[in-house]
Design brief:
The C terminus is likely disordered. The protein contains ten helices and no strands. Helix 1 packs antiparallel against helix 2, helix 4 packs parallel to helix 6 and helix 6 runs antiparallel to helix 7. The chain is an all-alpha fold. The longest helix is centred in the middle third of the chain and has 141 residues. It has two domains: 175 residues, Helix Hairpins, CATH 1.10.287; 99 residues, Serine Threonine Protein Phosphatase 5, Tetratricopeptide repeat. The chain is rod-shaped, with a radius of gyration of 72 Å.
Amino acid sequence: MEEEQTNTEALRKGLQQFNQARHEDAYELQALLEHNLREIVSLINKLPESLTGKTVESIKNSKKELKNLLQKRISAIIAAIDKTPKQINELMLKSLTPLKEDLLNAHNKRYESLEDRLSGMEKTVSSHLENIADNIGGATSHLGELLETSLNSIKETTTTSESLIRESISNIDSHLEEMSQRLISVSENIGNYVEELRKEREKFKSIKDKEEAQRLNDLAVKSFYAGRTKLTIDRLKEAAKLDDASLEILTNLGIALSKEGKNKEAKKIFSQVLEKDPKMSEAISGMGLLMFNEGDIDEAINFFKKAIEKDEGFASAYANLGYAFEEKKDTERAIEYWEKALQLDPTLKEAKEALSLYKDRRIDGTGEISV
């Protein structure tokens, strides 16, 4: 860019110098013409005065010479007045003839002198005019040469500037192309960065959502064992919105719904879980609870046993088997499964209460209640 500005400044200065030289040459030519014209006007104005003055002086000289000549002739005539008329006549003729000749000679001399002077003046004027013409021609030639030199200089400068401008334009195009490629690259990098940032934000949000979902799930479990089933369902539904991929949360929600008697909704939840993970023992046990609530005890027992097959340490499944066999009036097997459940998880309150109830009030073979 700096080189282009330098070339532009050089071209501008060249044009300014040309305009200045053109104006100076015009002023010089105008001054020369005015000077020569003033000389011509002055010469012409002096012609009549010079010519008239010299002519008057010549006439005055002629008059003086004529007067002197006449006086001489008159004196000669007076001196011969006493002669005879014939002699007087001859004498006058003799005297007047030279006078006539003298007058003619004087006139011819004055005419020749005037003619010579006029011829000299004509030559002088012609010489001045020729000098003026030569000066004008020289000035014109000088102006033409100056104009030609200036035009050639401008042409060379223009050609050089045009070449530099084309080179600059080519460089600019190259730079623009390079900048365009860089912008595309930067745009792609920014796009990739934004996409990565978006993914990171989504990942961060997902982590935070999962943490919040797990917190709500833990609260729901506590409220479930506290007997607040409705609150448990609300918390688990909110947790499922934050982390719909958590099978634990969905299973707990299905269990809470079945506890509340919402079997249809609970069955849909358990089916979703088992579709994703057929080995999910909690969901299998949950399906057994639904069968239990619907009165299909045998099918419920089958689901509870399947859950234990998937997880032999699943205490709740053993407890649920106890409730199922209790419903079938098989108290011995019920007590057996409750005891197994409490061995695995002594905190199972309902199983402990049921076991205490039956163990404390077990009927022996005599028909009496043993304590």
